[in-house]
From TrEMBL:
<dbReference type="InterPro" id="IPR036661">
    <property type="entry name" value="Luciferase-like_sf"/>
</dbReference>
<protein>
    <submittedName>
        <fullName>LLM class flavin-dependent oxidoreductase</fullName>
    </submittedName>
</protein>
<dbReference type="InterPro" id="IPR011251">
    <property type="entry name" value="Luciferase-like_dom"/>
</dbReference>
<feature type="domain" description="Luciferase-like">
    <location>
        <begin position="9"/>
        <end position="249"/>
    </location>
</feature>
<dbReference type="InterPro" id="IPR050766">
    <property type="entry name" value="Bact_Lucif_Oxidored"/>
</dbReference>
<dbReference type="Pfam" id="PF00296">
    <property type="entry name" value="Bac_luciferase"/>
</dbReference>
Length: 338
């Protein structure tokens, strides 16, 4: 068995060729797709967060709305850029969204990806020491994780407007168990080991910011194993979770073949991100029987407990629900995922 969810970047484009032409479309269709995915039997609805872009940017109103419209499906992010976040304000928002959803929040966070603007986090009021963007993201994360543990730390006013409970006060609302449902988006093997040391789940996408010359899925499988080894070495008592993302398109109709038929020739790619080598994983698009065979050979997919299907959200809710349904019915059972 494997958890299967979708991951949407929430792109919107004011073009007649896009089914998602505005920010309103992107948000409302994201909610509708989560509802449809739950009805189809999918396990998760995840959303990518980018600032200064025509994409989803403010996760917590969306997550709360999805939580209110659904009852079973996990809701999450993949990922929130922690360089932009106020840890205490984020703790309040995350606690509220988790309570609204009944404890279904799976929050993916990270240092973030290359930005749309130069040092966009500075416009949000955050200044790293020197040029240490990653250090600032990790410090924001440290404080966020500390706060959502629920321990009091703020001295109460001796003359408050409303009565206080005894002792130091914590950020409210507090949602029990949320700390164990935080994931870090790791782009390298070393970062995966750091993730384990912090007691966060591992979220790995379709690219790694390093290249050793081996196929992407093997490099990612090594990353997953290093994460699990580091988790054990750190002495954590619970079992961690691991997710990987893939673009998977079963070709079961003429429109599938028109959209993604050429992707059957997809291969790994090596490029550059932030001046360093990166390896990008291939897309999977084929007839269901050949797709099953190809996915069975993906070592990282086999190693993960959760698979996030990256969806082309600008093709609309109905088409993306069709893609999710095709994976769940035409691919997953043959692989033992259902």
């Amino acid at each position: 068995m494997k958890n299967i969810g979708f991951l949407s970047f929430g792109h919107w484009t004011p073009s007649p060729h896009s089914a998602t032409q505005s920010a309103s479309d992107a948000l409302l269709q994201s909610i509708d797709l989560a509802v449809a995915a739950e009805e189809l039997g999918a396990d998760g609805a995840y959303f990518r967060i980018h600032h200064f872009a025509r994409q989803l940017a403010s996760p917590f109103p969306l997550l709360a709305a999805v939580g209110a419209r659904t009852s079973r499906i996990e809701i999450g992010t993949g990922v929130i850029d922690m360089r932009y976040e106020n840890p205490l304000y984020m703790a309040e928002d995350a606690g509220a969204a988790d309570l609204i959803s009944g404890g279904r929040l799976q929050l993916g966070i990270s240092r973030g990806s290359p930005e749309q603007v130069i040092d966009g986090f500075r416009h949000f009021g955050y200044q790293p020491e020197g040029d240490d963007h990653a250090g600032m993201a990790r410090e924001h994360t440290r404080r966020f994780l500390e706060v959502i543990e629920g321990e009091g730390f703020a001295e109460p006013n001796p003359r408050p407007m409303f009565p206080n409970p005894p002792g130091l006060l914590r950020v409210e609302p507090y949602s029990e168990g949320l700390r164990e449902r935080i994931w870090w988006g790791a782009g390298s093997r070393a970062t995966a080991e750091w993730t384990a040391e912090q007691g966060m789940n591992l979220m790995s996408s379709t690219l790694l910011t390093e290249d050793t010359g081996v196929p992407f899925h093997q490099l990612q499988a090594e990353q997953v194993q290093r994460f699990r080894d580091a988790w054990t070495a750190a002495g954590h008592t619970r079992t961690p979770r691991v997710s990987v993302s893939r673009s998977v398109f079963p070709l079961v109709s003429d429109i599938d073949r028109a959209y993604f038929g050429r992707e059957s020739m997809s291969r790994d790619q090596v490029g550059q991100i932030d001046g360093g080598l990166a390896r990008f994983g291939k897309s999977y698009a084929d007839e269901p029987d050949r797709l099953v065979k190809a996915l069975a050979e993906d070592e990282a997919v086999a190693a993960a407990d959760t698979l996030l299907l990256t969806v082309p959200n600008q093709l609309g809710v109905d088409y993306n629900a069709h893609v999710i349904e095709s994976v769940l019915k035409d691919v997953a059972p043959a692989l033992g995922w259902r």
